[in-house]
Amino acid sequence: MTHSARRIGRSLALVLPVVLVLSGTLAVTMVPWADTSSSQVLTASAEGVSVPAKPRAAQDVLRDKLLTELQDGAQPGAVLTHLQQEVDRRPSLATHCVGIARALGRAAVDAYGPTKAQSFARPVCDTSYATGVASMG
Question: How many helices and strands in the chain, by DSSP H and E?
Answer without folding.
Answer: 6, 2
